[in-house]
Amino acid sequence: MSLVKEKGYFGQFGGSFVPPALQEVLSNLDANFEKYKDDEDFIQEFKYYLKDFVGRDNPLTFAKRLTEKLGGAKIYLKREDLNHTGAHKINNAIGQILLAKRMGLKRIIAETGAGQHGVATATACAMFGMECVIYMGAEDTKRQALNVFRMELLGAKVVSVEKGQGRLKDAVDEALSDLVQNHENTFYLLGSAVGPHPYPTIVKHFQSIISEESKRQIVEKEGKLPTAVIACTGGGSNAIGAFAHYLDDEDVRLIGVEPDKAPSLTKGVPAEIHGFKCLALIDEEGNPMPTYSIAAGLDYPGIGPEHSYLKESGRAEYYAVSNEEVLEAFQILSKTEGIIPALESAHAIAYTLKFAPTLSKDDVLIVNLSGRGDKDVQQVFDML
Ligand SMILES: *Cc1c(COP(=O)(O)O)cnc(C)c1O
After folding, report:
1. Domain positions in the chain
2. What is the tens place of the pLDDT at every residue in 355-370?
């Protein structure tokens, strides 16, 4: 199934709605991505760092006790939580920095809300010896003081953005204006499968390693493809990476799980936000609405354009879960498997707790465990 009809579009979604100066930078990025993505040296270099720095392949773990407890489908966990820095974001950060290197760009900029993408970017920049500037809303720097310190420890400069409401959107605006001014030496490293073309395609490409591995691993272990692949969706990068190699396997159900406090896929409407078209939560004026997920990494009023299309075309299904269900899933996985999941990943587990018992023992589920929960333990402690 080829989703891209016109370059950068997934059905009616995607595109690039940006000012001409920025469009020029994005077109150049697109040309370079096309040039290097299938280049053998580039692929080898990417795989080298995934193996020796990130620690891939990560396991596909059979969740034996959870499977027994639920009494339905066999449940496997794809262990992105075991990656260096504890989540899937590092896959994409390394891929994009390698692309920047090939383009001769030595300065990396990024924006971050909760700080997880900022930390992944700062980590990869330190390892490659690249200059790193992270834009963060002033409000967010206060709420995420420890992540600010982590980024600084890793050698990044964190710029606190006072403009506007001092939130993610304001940080994005600052990062984009930096890019337009400094594009001759600067690369904008985007953290999820969102934004104007070519970013959703680039991020999917680098995160596809998740399903490249899981497909090989499940065939080795079970001799067949899974009944379904389940992943949480914020911007949609871990989910699109977990789905990518199964898109053409029409019998494999693809299931995205979002917070019911940020339900862009289950309640959103087609809209243009942040330079691209997607399913989004907007007010009467067309502005993105505030969202309130307990998982900072899922707090986004839109979703990647490819997910928007997968929803519309019916190829993938999306469900929302509540904060209470997520907190319960967080504890159940910890107790039954000895794995404390990120609150984001606990969304995928929460849906699995309801879904697995409805299936038979011949069914097999792959749940993408996008990250580890160490970062969330304090927050869950405060909530319980
Ligand atoms: C950032 C993050 C997410 C959400 O981002 P996606 O782009 O939707 O994958 C999910 N899980 C973890 C652990 C994260 O850090």
Report:
1. 10-47+89-203, 55-87+209-383
2. 999 999 999 999 999 9
Q: How many residues can be counted in the chain?
A: 384
Task: Assess whether 89 carries a catalytic annotation.
Answer: yes
| CATH class of the domain defined by 10-47+89-203 | alpha beta
Instruction: Express each pLDDT in 28-61 by its tens digit.
Output: 999 999 999 999 999 999 999 999 999 999 999 9
Determine whether 111 is an active site residue.
yes
Sheet holding 316-321, edge to edge: 60-62, 74-79, 364-369, 228-232, 253-259, 316-321
Q: Is the CB of 236 under 6 A from ligand 1?
A: yes
Task: For tokens 């899981």, name the residue.
Answer: 214
Quote the tokens at residue 83. Answer: 């990656």
Q: Is the CB of 192 under 6 A from ligand 1?
A: yes
Ligand 1, pocket-test mutation among 237, 258, 274, most atoms within 8 A of CB: 237
Q: How many CB atoms lie within 10 A of CB 228?
A: 22
Residue bearing tokens 């680039």: 202
Closest Cα partner for 110 from 34, 174, 49? 174
Which residue among 370, 374, 375, 376 is best mutated to probe the pocket of ligand 1, counting the most ligand atoms within 8 A of its Cβ? 370
- Residue among 111, 139, 174, 344 flagged as catalytic: 111
Does residue 2 surpass a pLDDT of 70? no
Task: State if residue 264 touches ligand 1 by the CB under 6 angstroms criterion.
Answer: no
Phi, psi of 260 (to 5 degrees): -75, -5
Say what the pTM is.
0.97
CA atoms within 13 A on the CB side of 95: 26
pLDDT top residue among 49 and 5: 49
Q: Which residue's CA is the nearest one to ligand 1's atom 5?
A: 234
Q: Is 211 among the residues known to form the active site?
A: no
The answer to whether domain 55-87+209-383 has CATH 3.40.50.1100 is yes
